Predict the structure.
Amino acid sequence: MTAPGTALHWLTATEIAQAYAARTLSPTELVQALLHRIEHLQPRLHAFIRLDADAAMDAAKSATAELHAGRVRGPLHGIPVGIKDIIDVAGLPTTAHSKILVDNIANQDAVCVARLRAAGAIVMGKLSTHEFAIGGPSFDLPFPPARNPWNPRHHPGGSSSGSGAGLASGMFPLALGTDTGGSVRNPASVCGIVGLKPTYGLVSRRGVFPLAFTLDHVGPMTRTVADNALLLEVLAGHDPDDPGSAQTKAGHFSATLDRGVDGLRIGFIRHFHETDMPAHPDVTAALEDVERILEAEGAIVKTVTLPKLSEFAGINRVILCSEAWSIHAPWLRERPGDYGALARRRLLPGAFMTAGDYVGAQRRRAELIAAVNDKLRDFDVLMCASSMDPASEIDDAAETARTYPRQARAPFNVTGHPALAMMSGLSGNGLPVSVQFVGRYFEDATVLRVAAAYEKAAGWYKKHPPI
Amino acid sequence: MDPTIAALAKAAGLDKALSEFPADIEAAAAQALGHAEAVKYPADPAAEPWPPMHAEPTL
């Protein structure tokens, strides 16, 4: 149940549903409170590109009336959600944070948004991203970049930056992000929340502007693991019109959250952050703490070795650049000046990739997938770093360019395994640091189970930014 | 600018970008080379790309 005195904006989706059932809170009251908080924080954090306040209030009033009439649409009835602005919401622009698409009104909801609405969720609006989920943080776009609630001088990660900033600051309890090289897990890591890149194909991408077809995922972003599992339950399921959609039954991701980690085998990929890309000492220390906590909870943690991080990163880049070029080539030819500088510079390399580069990367990809699968035969879950550094100052372009690629998320876009990033502590300067858990294909529930056990034992979810 | 890079950019239809953002074109070519060089190609000539071609019954 809701802890006495918990401010409305820090309630989790699970707590909100309980409060609605107990008639101690209504959707109208909650949405009003959140809109007030957004009005207060948006000028500092820029989490929203477009707040849809009127539609959210109308939906809240309908949800309230339905509750009074004893009707519950689904597990997210009356629960507010923010949507990254590369995901279509009917009637609203999908700008991808770019001048190129600034007038692009969506005709219908993306499948993931339609699933949220069918479960009763209330869409609050569209959230900041990096331009086309690749170019940012940038100051030469039609909308300002989101900022980190833990310290607005710092970036909130990306490219699902508004999702991370809005969740961590209590603007909404649930959000959708997308992840092609780590874009759900980066904001989760540096904003101190929970972000899951599900197994490739588990969540439909139809109605989501693509970045790289074989690397793109839609993922749930939340403040707690239980909410993440709840959101994934609504999102997951086969979509015959998404060519990458997996033929799987809908999962029950919440059912095993409380089982703990006693006896689970966890492979710790130390070389990612120790030798391949030496991490900030605060990140390393927090990872050691995670290991200690999981062992104390009964897990068996052993060191494992995979191919070097640079190899995964190289494969990710070749595939991403090649596939993104096939999408952006017409605009890069005709309207190069309408891109921000960062997006243009990150998309143009695709023009210089050869077919041989792409096919070669896809051939090596199959071997990397086999290497990860091989470890997951011996271990239930793998554990490793996510970001190697706390978030840099957003105005420090050189430091941002240095630290942004220092991450261990891209390997699991290459392989498609489910991967979750969450808070593992605070750095010396008060910014979140993180850990990542990785599971077998379609065993997202086991990843969430380990994350839930760690969350409960470590307690970082109780910590909120001082904003 | 290296004439090969300029020729490749023109072949890709990037005349406008070449004229307006020549530094971006040069940087992109260098990045592409760097990314491609980071890839260790499979030693096995029969190693197939991911995902493999699949034929499925239809209709």
User: Anything to note?
Assistant: The mean pLDDT of chain A is 97.
